[in-house]
Amino acid sequence: MSDxxxxxxxxxxxxxxxxxxxxxxxxxxxADPFGVAATGLTWLPKEEHFGIRHGNRLVAHAGLLRLPVAxxxxxxxxxxxxxxxxxxxxxxQGLARLVVTAALDHARTMGPQHALLFCRPPLVPLYQRLGWxxxxxxxxxLVEQPENRLVTMPLRTMVTPLHDxxxxxxxxxRLLSLPM
Length: 180
Prior knowledge:
Blueprint: E1 12-15, H1 20-27, E2 48-54, E3 57-71, E4 74-86, H2 95-107, E5 114-119, H3 124-129, E6 133-134, E7 141-145, E8 149-152, E9 156-161, E10 173-175
Parallel strand pairs: 4-5, 7-10
Antiparallel strand pairs: 1-2, 2-3, 3-4, 3-10, 5-9, 6-9, 7-8
C-alpha cells in the first residue's frame, strides 16, 4: 500500500543542494547511514541532486558526479551515482526506481557513455532490477584515497549504459579520483 494518495503521485524534483540535514531527514542521524563506514573510504560529494518529497519531508535522494576513469589503458569519464537513499518507512513503493531513473535521465545529457556506482552486496539485486550490471568478480576496481593511496574497492561495482551501443570492456578499472 502506498503512502502517497492517488492524487499525489510521487514526483522527482531536481534539488539545488543536498546537505547533511537533508540526508538525516531521509535516513535519520545514525553514524553509518549507508552501511559503508567499515570500508574506511573517503567519498566525494555529489554535484547534481534529485529527490522526492512527501509533504514537506524529503524521502528519497540520488546524486550524480562526473568522474575520470581508466578502463584498461583507455581513459574516459563516467557519471558516478551515489547517495541513493529512501526513508525506511517509505521503502517498497518504487521510490528508488523513480529517483534513480530521473538521475540517469539527466546523466544521459552529461556526455559519458556509462554510469557507475558502488553498493553493498545485499543491494545488488535492487540495482539489477533497475538495469544495472555488476562487474565480473575478477575485475579489479581501484579508487584513489587521500595521501596518494590507491585501494581496491571493497563494495560491488555496477555499471549501466547511458546511450545505445555503449559497451563496458571487461578490463581492470581505476577511478582517477575519490569514489562517489
